[in-house]
Specification:
This protein folds into 2 domains: 4-167 and 185-218, 2,3-Dihydroxybiphenyl 1,2-Dioxygenase, domain 1 (Roll); 225-375, 2,3-Dihydroxybiphenyl 1,2-Dioxygenase, domain 1. It contains 7 helices and 20 strands. It has helices at residues 35-45, 90-96, 116-126, 192-201, 246-256, 290-294, 313-325, and strands at residues 9-11, 14-16, 24-32, 49-55, 72-77, 85-89, 106-112, 132-137, 144-148, 156-160, 220-222, 225-227, 233-243, 260-267, 270-276, 284-288, 303-310, 330-331, 344-348, 354-358. The chain is globular. Mean pLDDT is 96; it is low at 1-5. The chain binds fe (ii) ion (FE2). Fe (ii) ion is lined by residues 27, 108, 110, 138, 157.
Length: 405
Amino acid sequence: MADDLSGTFNVGGVEMARPFRIRRLGHFGLDVDDVEVCRDFYERMMGFRVADPLPLGNRLPEEERGKYGSGNGYFMRHGTDHHSFVIFPRRVRRKLLPHITGDMTVNQITWQVGSLREVVSGTTWLKDSVRIARTGRDAPGSNWHFYPIDPAGHTNELYYGIEQIGWDQHSKPMQIHRKHYTEPPELPHRSELEEVEEGRNAGVDLLSGVRGIERMEEKYDVGGILMGRPFKIVKVGPVRIFVPDIDAALGFYQDILGLTITEEVTYKGHRCVFLRANTEHHSLALYPIALRGELGLSEHTTMMSIGMQVAEYSQLHDAVDFLTENGYKISKLPQELFPGLGHNAFVTDPDGHLVQLYFNMEQIGWDGKPRPAAERPKIDNENWPKTLPLDADMFNGEVYLGPWS
Ligand SMILES: [Fe+2]
């Protein structure tokens, strides 16, 4: 089933083994203990903008509200997608969803598919074989989706059609969402434009949604633009997670979701597997949970790290300097754990999660083969060169659209 070449589903005219095709990692979310402190870090330090807050705490019984700190969730973005990164209040989430286990701080691993039909057909195809947490549509964000859960309990989401935010920085006003969807819609469904027109004709102010702003003084020259920090995040991912059973995880991520294995590595006896959705060497890396303690990483989370790509190699140096100056801890891990990834460093967020900063990742072409390990540039993370020689695939892969700020 892992091979799309033997398919029986017609997905937009192409024969596939499943009724959808994941195109890319769309966004990623974490549950954090102090959501306001983390918001400050991801906004001011990392440059994300809040697209919409979600007052999750209001879903608690009235007598419990306010007992567990801020109840806000924050949908954040680095580009035009309404959200590429989300943070939610962990204590509140655990009150509302008591089945969430001790070290599960991953809120969601979210994948973009190609059409609304893929979402609806995928929901039908999977509902008898996989636990699906919910279906329908997100507001905020407008994306149609379903949420399958992996064998270790990580929530995944497959979606189509996330809201885009443009030059005016305004999210779609909530009043545009005139209907709440908690199950897949009848197809065909009317377009987003038609929904917006209906709201506009009913008098909704299209500029009344949340407006993202810069909270730092714009004093850094970044590629010729004055910005609030000396780097620009242009992509979120790859996701690295620890799992108790690699084969069970592959049964989900490879066989069911259809991700492709690029490479496997044995690190000190531990089998680590790297999967991709598109041309990137990996968008998801699976590591055995036993490795977490051996690496000295925090036991409060099954996430090893979330990747964040910066726009230029020089910005990687500047990002590390900037975060260090602002009091954040920078660390490195053995490069053998990251085949295909260029120079990288980790910053620890206020909740103890690791964010992996990097500039480039190996890209995979038509033959599906990674570069042989012996032919890869040698990466010494303790001694980053000031400049890099141009490498063949250095600027390939997903391209950031639009201005940086
Ligand atoms: Fe999502």
